[in-house]
Amino acid sequence: MAQSPNRTGIGKSILRKEDQRFLTGTGIFIDDIHFSNALECFIVRSPHAHATFTTVDTSLAQKIPGVIAVFTGTDMAEEEIGSMFALWKITSKNGAPMAEPPRWALARGTVRHVGEPVAIVIAQSFDQAADAAEIINIDYNVLASVTDSVEALKSGAPQLHNEAANNICFEWERGDEAATNQAFEKADKIIRLDLTNNRLVGAAIETRGVVASIDPITNTVVLHSTTQVPHHIRLCVAQQLNIMENKLRVISPDVGGGFGPKGKHYPEETILAWAARKLGCTVRWIGRREESFISDTQGRDHQTHTELAINAGGEFIGLRVKTIANIGAYISTFGANIPSVIYSALLSGVYQTPAIHVEVTGVFSNTVPVDAYRGAGRPEACYVLERLADRAAYELGMDRVEIRLKNMITAEQMPYTTAIGHTYDSGNFPALLTKVCVNSDYSNFESRRLQSQETKKLRGIGIASFVESSGVAPSRMAGALGARVATFESAHIRVDEDGSITAMLGTHNHGQGHATTFAQILSDQLGVPAETIEVLEGDTAMVPRGTGTFGSRSIAVGGSALHVAGEKIIKKGQLIAAHLLEAAPSDIAFLESEFCVTGTDRKISFNEVAKAAYAPFKLPLELDPGLDENAFYDPTNFAFSNGAHIAEVEVDPDTGQVKLISYYAVDDIGTIINPMIVEGQLHGGLAQGIGQVLMENCKYDSGSGQLLSGSFLDYAVPRADDMPVIYSELDQTQPCTHNPLGAKGCGESGAIGAPAAVVSAVLDALRPLGVNEIQMPLSPQNVWQALKMVLPEKI
Ligand code: MCN
Fold first, then answer.
1. Does position 626 have pLDDT exceeding 90, yes or no?
2. Counting atoms of ligand 1 from 1, which one is nearest the CA of 673?
């Protein structure tokens, strides 16, 4: 798409409209909203990883002054409140549906992870509710627990659900096993790796919160929730409570970061909506940080064995991947499809590997449910492929860039259907890798390595090339693979009589800058300044249908819906203008906010047309009044963003400390709406990718199932001084070919490339000393221990 000459249109780095509010402390987050007479809800959570119970004695708690009600799973069961349910069903290779044991919003007789909600206390103040919660007596019978997915599969492991023999949720398979076996038979070399993709928490700055109230006029439940997906929450909660969707309004106000975990349906949303209906009161729960660690979905947690078959020329001829994915105690909203459908589909990555076979076993364990975390399946796929590419180069004595370029899908081959299923529409993977090598001065790296040696530091350079399926998701493709919800997006544009424009979308803004970028799309299309366009999201009463924000889908899917609605506005405007200008509609052109009769100087402004639209007495009978249009957009394919990243590190051999010296990224995200926002998104994603690779690790005690990293004292997230200088470049030469904007998503790119690039760099630094493998996170302790293994006498 051509860049706009418009000052605030597509391609302009205009400042974020929303930042004025955020930077002046006038954002409206859930805890800022005053709900009169709101009661406070305290959630009693399981202190055990695995236990049964028969009684929850609430008699003393009920007597605490200020306590209004205490509810347990039994109360919800008596009212036949349904189980939580996943929005995607996976079918195992033997044709059986995934094991889908019930997950009750309040536990019924068994708890399966520390933090599982068991009871709630509703009181006039938080302190009263917390005091009462302390004296609830639950006769737990503690059972053996298992938190590690490999251990959970072993015979004799504690069993979580009757419905899931051997703790197996699903055994998924994809690809051509016979062709892959043949490739391995022909291989000159086989590379084998065992990889751990460490478990992460979301760590958004704002914790989750839910407030449920009853609108007395319509008797509607109004559910304020810090969610990325208001329409999914309406669907799920309405079904569970057995109420009509139009009796539930979900509002998600300003949200302080989502990162995936806020895109899921949680027990608290159901519990509070149910309690508010039961009591006819407003009920409020704002999660505390310690609750966040044990109740927000967690990410990644893969154990993978992988094998790459290579021929003598260094060509990848076959790939086998066997992944054990930890699902957690229950299947979360998208907990089953991310480690299977989404992850496996990207295991060709940027390479031409002709035969691929993937098996993924989803395993229940006594841990918090696992679901999407920034990148969701794509960082895991990139990590497998890039680690293999590095290892193959090492074993064949080839340069790491050379082996990648040899195997990459080229721009000339697009559209390209991979051996595992996706059809990439566009992208020039070799060009991006070549560019990032030039930008990072890859070819002169060895001189920098020598310089570092002078200060007794080990220097390394690492590479990651990747492609990601952004713009999630084409509904038909998703439906064929088990999705239980469609994944279209909707946009509604209302032009008022004075020409002012309001755009309402089903996506959600929790830090991405949508109020600015969606306005830029319309500014470009309608020729009006972006500042004058209001963008509204996050309220199911305002936007009747939508999917929400995850999978870097907002611009590619929501932005496209907006563009289509904009086209409808122009079309209707042309009919009105044709009538007012006494011309044929086909002679009316729309140019920079004016409707003109082609070949003449007769024209009428957008604002005049808007005014006429609401004066039907000026319009012919066949034209309905109004300038108000709605569009649904369901893409035909994913938008395949891609990138090439290079990280340079220095390792201190005495302490194991890894210092990131520089990070170079070249990303193709198609048409760029706002380069400055995109840059910010890349930096944010990189911070999370760098966090995963260097320090973040969600760790459970294998004996008790307690979360050991349950606070920010134990779980390290990166701070400003952990970040390197980032040199990023955006390539717009390969627009997405199937959406009207040509845009691909950018929100997750950094989190996808960084883990692989940084591990590659650290191994490059350590390899001269004999360290060939290391698992994430590359904390000083892990790096130091890896060095100690090879150099016991020196360290
Ligand atoms: N953009 C653009 N041009 C493009 C692509 C995107 O200008 N070609 C802009 C968009 O207009 C939008 C932003 O970049 O303002 C991100 O767009 P997109 O890639 O479509 O991603 P989403 O808006 O759908 O955001 C989701 C994505 C994901 S999946 C996670 S997780 C994530 C993220 O983005 N969580 C975030 N970025 C985050 N940023 C913040 N501040 N907080 C989070 O929780």
1. yes
2. 7
Phi-psi label, residue 628: left if phi above 0, alpha if psi -120 to 50, beta otherwise: beta
Task: Answer for the pair 549, 228: CB distance below 8 angstroms, yes or no.
Answer: yes
**510 in contact with ligand 1, CB cutoff 6 A:** yes
Q: pLDDT band for 792, please (50, 70, 90 cuts).
A: confident
**In angstroms, rounded to a whole number, what is the distance separating the alpha carbons of residues 117 and 41?**
12
Question: How large is the angle between the packed helices 230-241 and 267-279, nearest 10 degrees?
Answer: 60
Query: How far is it, in rounded angstroms, from Cα 296 to Cα 455?
Result: 44
Residue owning the nearest CA to atom 11 of ligand 1 = 517
Q: How many CB atoms lie within 10 A of CB 412?
A: 7
Cβ of 374 less than 6 Å from ligand 1: yes
For the Cβ of 512 lying below 6 angstroms from any atom of ligand 1, the answer is: yes
Residue pointed to by tokens 């302080």: 256
DSSP 465: E
Q: Say which DSSP state 676 is in.
A: H
Q: Is 511 in the pocket of ligand 1 (CB under 6 A)?
A: yes
Report the separation in Å between the CA atom of 616 and the middle of ligand 1, taken as the mean of its atom positions.
41
Q: What is the pLDDT of residues 492-522, one digit of tens each?
A: 999 999 999 999 999 999 999 999 999 999 9
Asked if 668 contacts 520 with a C-beta cutoff of 8 angstroms, the reply is no
pLDDT band at 526 (very low <50, low <70, confident <90, very high): very high
Q: What is the mean pLDDT of residues 736-761?
A: 97
Distance 552 CA to ligand 1 centre (A): 6
- Does residue 795 surpass a pLDDT of 80? no
CATH topology of domain 19-24+488-633: Aldehyde Oxidoreductase; domain 4 (3.30.365)
- Tell me how far apart the alpha carbons of residues 653 and 140 are, in angstroms, rounded to a whole number: 48
Calculate mean pLDDT across residues 684-708. 97
Q: How far apart are CA 460 and CA 448, in angstroms?
A: 9
CA distance 751 to 693: 10
Rounded to the nearest whole angstrom, what is the distance from the C-alpha of residue 264 to the centroid of ligand 1?
17
For the Cβ of 748 lying below 6 angstroms from any atom of ligand 1, the answer is yes
**Whole-angstrom distance, CA of residue 485 vs CA of residue 505:** 18
CATH architecture type of domain 33-143+205-257+261-295: Alpha-Beta Complex (3.90)
| DSSP states of 517-558 | HHHHHHHHHH-S-GGGEEEEESBTTTSSS---S-TT-IIIII
- The protein residue with its alpha carbon nearest to ligand 1, atom 10, reads 555
**Can 33-143+205-257+261-295 and 298-473+636-790 be said to share one CATH topology?**
no
Q: What is the rounded average pLDDT for all residues in the chain?
A: 96
Distance CA 144, CA 359 (A): 28
Arithmetic mean of pLDDT, 4-18: 89
Helix, coil or strand: residue 108:
coil
292, 243, 293, 303: which is closest to 270 by C-alpha? 243
Taking 3-state DSSP, the helix, strand and coil percentages for the chain, each rounded to the nearest 5, stand at 35, 25, 40
Domain ranges of the chain: 19-24+488-633, 33-143+205-257+261-295, 298-473+636-790
Indicate which residue's Cα is closest to atom 21 of ligand 1: 552
Whether the predicted pLDDT of 470 surpasses 90: yes
Q: What is the DSSP string of 703-746?
A: TT--BSS-STTTS----GGG--EEEEEEE-SS--SSSTT-B---
Per-residue pLDDT reduced to its tens digit, 342-353: 999 999 999 999
Q: Which residue has the tokens 């914790």?
A: 207
Identify the pLDDT of residue 495: 97
* Residue closest to 776 by CA, chosen among 551, 470, 462: 462
Q: Whose CA is nearest to atom 12 of ligand 1?
A: 512
Do residues 28 and 119 touch, judged by C-beta distance below 8 A? no
Give the CATH architecture of domain 298-473+636-790: 2-Layer Sandwich (3.30)
| Overall pTM surpassing 0.85 (yes/no) | yes
